[in-house]
Amino acid sequence: MSPKKLHPTTPPNVAPLLLLWAHWPAWLVGMMAMLAFALPMSVIIRSMHENAREVMENSLRQGLLSYARALAGVVDPDQHSQFTRREQETSPEYLQQLVALDTLKRALDVKGMVKYVYTCVLHDGEVRLVLDTTPEGDADGDGQDDKAHILDPYPEASHTLRRTLEKGVPAVDSIPYTDRWGTFLSAYAPVFNSAREVVACLGVDVELTDFNAQLASLHTAELLHFVGAFSLSLLAGIFMYIYHLRLRVAVGDLTTAEMAAQASSRAKSDFLATMSHELRTPMNAVLGMIQLLQKANLKPVEHEYLKTAYEVGDRLMTMINDILDFSQIDVGTIALVRDRVDLPALLEDVTASVRDEARLRKLDLTAHIAPGCPTLFWGDNTRLRQLLRHVVGNAVKFTDSGYVRITAKVVLPGEIQFKIEDTGVGIGKENQEALFDAFYQSDSSIRRRHGGTGLGLAISKRLCDAMKGRIWFESEVGRGTTFHIALPGEPVMEPPQGEAKAPEGAGSRSVLLATDDDLVQLLVAGVARKMELPIHSVTTASDLPASVEAEDARYVMVDASILDAPTVEWVREQRKKIRKNSVQYCLLNATAGDTRNEAFHHVLTSPLKPSTIRETLTHPV
Fold first, then answer.
1. Residue 245 counted as domain residue
2. Is the same domain home to 471 and 359?
3. Domain that holds residue 573
4. CA-CA distance, 484 to 421, in Å (whole number)?
5. Higher local confidence (pLDDT), 325 or 347
6. Could you tell me if 118 and 203 are in contact, meaning their C-beta atoms sit under 8 angstroms apart?
7. Which residues contact 349 (CB under 8 A, 6 or more apart)?
8. Which of 164, 255, 489, 527 is the most exposed place for a label (fewest CB within 10 A)?
9. Of 456, 488, 520, which residue sits at a domain end?
10. CB within 8 A of 413, min separation 6: which ones?
11. Residue 479 phi/psi, 5° resolution?
12. What is the 3-state secondary structure (H, E, C) of 307-364?
């Protein structure tokens, strides 16, 4: 069955996104914003107005060329060829041609832009004027007759006009042309005879005053558009200036809040570390003393009292461990260690932790390793043991009869899957989605019947996520629950190499304890005396090197609360040396995942129990 989709157990750690430009000066951001608006808009406006000017000029040229072609069509080429003397200007034929041209000019030039309409010929290689619709007189006040007469020379004729006469191609001057009548933009169209020979060229001059007025209007509009674009850009710059000022304040607040959150997290971590020591150490001593008292010659009723006290204390210690572990995971202070995991030893330890309760409930508690499953693999031994203890402990707790079975097998390469089956009460569908939530219990009666904080499965889920694994379950009310835990498990290809050991039994077996905690000293000393082992104590880790030599200690136990970096390095150096009588180094009250643990032969985490201390002191030297 595929893993169930579960609600996330921890909120994502979303850090504030600090913009790279958040610390730039506000005026610089405002200026850049204004330029970012102004430059593209200026380019667009300029391009639009250049296009508009080009359209106006092309429209004017095309209109002039159309006028010239139309007017050239009313010129009689045969009669025009006869006009060679000024005296002919009074002839009916000449006047008829002028009237025809003037009439069509007035019809075509609705806006009155056309100033002159005339014809020219090539005479002895020179351009000479023939027809001119301009009235006689000096209207422009230049002292000359405005009207051109038959075969008057036209030395100022443009190259465009001459080319039209020579090649018979209609054309428009590319730029305004200036002669004695003024500055004009002119268009020219050829006049052909019946043999398709160019006999004349008709010219149309338009005065640029109106056109320049239109261009001036266009320039004014362009200027207004630039002013509008600059105003909008200025507003954008002011807006970004104000926005950036507020952003800098917001970023400052976020930075302050982040620093406060980090300080709070550090304070919480420090608090948890302190509470871990201050709560667990006294409870360790209390439980240890109770275990020592149970071995004394007491009355049966006194043994019952001690048994009850130990069970209540052990339950309280479990609750303390759950709350502290959950808090450490929640603030992200948990660390994982990659070490060798002995699968048979792991399953034995997990089943041993619940064997007494399973026996009381008359449950069939079994652990099985499927064929092909590696018995030695890489993983975090401590966290894996903690994870399985929570799940198996829950299975035993909620099973009144039947069995609890643990199976380890390989389903996918490089992955080990643990299957925990029970025949307990089961979990209703309405409660399954929230099963991994913190402090959740599906029934209020569970707390009264079984106790607990509702953190076991929440811790299991978080541990599984931290180890990049998966956890899911199947359950049916009244028939039991099956949990599946899939974790990375790369097999160990080579067996661990043991350190060189001295012959068993060589020398004395004295114990050297380094702790500043009276309760830890009392617990360890009590176990050592029961085993008839000499014990010596120091209160600082720096006293260890000299004391090991002076006391000829074979077991050195160091409380994690006084452990410092130089002592860790000293222990590592001592373990590298080949000694005649090897020394066993043990770390007490260790934190799971602490990198300092690797320096010691034995690591005992809270709660310290006389049985684990005794097991360590019976390890052969």
1. yes
2. yes
3. 505-617
4. 9
5. 347
6. yes
7. 385
8. 255
9. 488
10. none
11. -120, -10
12. HHHHHHHHHHHHHHHHHHHHHHHHCCCCCCCCEEEEHHHHHHHHHHHHHHHHHHCCCE
Q: Identify the domain boundary among 488, 522, 551.
A: 488
296 lies in some domain: no
pLDDT band at 269 (very low <50, low <70, confident <90, very high): low
DSSP sequence for 197-229: -EEEEEEEEEEHHHHHHHHHHHHHHHHHHHHHH
**Same domain membership, residue 476 and residue 406:** yes
Let me know whether 200 and 120 are in one domain: yes
Measured distance CA(226)–CA(49) in Å, rounded:
11
Query: Cα–Cα distance between 499 and 583 in angstroms, integer?
Result: 11
The distance from CA 619 to its chain's CA centroid, rounded to whole angstroms, is 52
Q: Is the pLDDT of residue 504 over 80?
A: no
Least confident of 93-107, 236-250, 404-418: 236-250
Give the whole-angstrom CA distance, residue 352 versus residue 278.
27
Q: Averaged over 494-509, what is the pLDDT? A: 44
**Domain containing 83 — which CATH number?**
3.30.450.20
Cα–Cα distance for residue pair 274/393, rounded to 1 Å: 27
pLDDT reading at 332 higher than 70: no
What average pLDDT is seen over the chain? 80
- 98 with 178, same domain: the answer is yes
pTM above 0.70, yes or no: no
pLDDT at position 188 is 93
Say yes or no: 541 and 462 in one domain: no
CATH number at residue 537: 3.40.50.2300
Tokens of 48: 């639009």
Q: Are residues 197 and 83 part of one domain?
A: yes
**Is 276 part of any domain?**
no
End-to-end CA distance of the chain: 49
Q: What is the pLDDT of residue 18?
A: 47
| 510 shares its domain with 476 | no
Is the same domain home to 166 and 230? yes
- Tens-digit pLDDT profile for residues 348-384: 888 888 888 889 889 898 989 888 899 899 888 878 8
How far is CA 153 from its chain centroid?
A: 83
Q: What is the mean pLDDT of residues 107-122?
A: 85
Helix then strand count (H, E) for the chain reads: 15, 19
202/197 Cα distance (integer angstroms)? 14
CB 505 within 8 A of CB 594: no
Residue 3 has pLDDT above 50, yes or no: no
To which H or E segment does residue 150 belong? none
If you count them, how many residues does the chain have? 621
Residue 141 is assigned to a structural domain of this protein: yes
Conformational region of residue 114, where left means phi above 0, alpha means psi within -120 to 50, and beta covers everything else:
beta
* Cα–Cα distance for residue pair 151/155, rounded to 1 Å: 12
- Could you tell me if 431 and 442 are in contact, meaning their C-beta atoms sit under 8 angstroms apart? yes
Question: What's the whole-number mean pLDDT along residues 517-531?
Answer: 84
